[in-house]
Specification:
Strand content: 15-25%
Mean pLDDT: 85
Order of helices and strands: HHHHHEEEEH
């Protein structure tokens, strides 16, 4: 299960187009709603999707020259895929937490990384938490994937 994103797709198959379309659809819905207004679960999903896209476009990404914020965004995703983190953590990641109350109901939160970390909140106990890439990197990743699609004439 460690290699959940290791599917071996090639950019020159229909899988690339379908995957890119799915990613862009999710991205556009989240962007239209406002990244700050989407649910924590949706934020986690849209944050993980670029790792899948990076796997699909692996060959193209290895040849691509990126600079500035695009380079940082790509570095965050590529390292995260291998369970590595890019410093400063507070800037590059968010904390996705899962909470459970005494009745077994779950709630999810997505917060800035803080030094003080509560384990009890409004009758809910924290059962797990993960660092996920910051939503601020998403526009740069979208630009990268669109460049690859354009350069490789990926369309239906």
């Amino acid at each position: 299960m460690d290699n959940i994103f290791e599917f071996g797709f090639s950019v020159f198959t229909g899988n690339a187009y379908t995957s890119l379309l799915r990613y862009l659809s999710k991205y556009e819905k989240a962007e239209k709603k406002g990244f700050e207004n989407i649910t924590p679960r949706d934020a986690m999903e849209i944050g993980f999707e670029p790792m899948f896209m990076a796997q699909i476009f692996g060959k193209e990404l290895s040849k691509m020259e990126v600079e500035g914020p695009e380079k940082l965004a790509l570095n965050i995703v590529m390292k995260y895929k291998h369970r590595e983190l890019v410093e400063p953590l507070e800037k590059n990641y968010l904390m996705f937490s899962i909470w459970r109350n005494k009745d077994g109901f779950l709630k999810y939160t997505l917060d800035e990384i803080r030094k003080e970390n509560s384990t009890i909140e409004e009758g809910f106990e924290k059962v797990d938490c993960y660092l996920v890439p910051s939503l601020k990197v998403l526009p740069y990743l979208k630009q990268i994937f669109l460049k690859i699609a354009h350069e490789n004439n990926i369309h239906q």
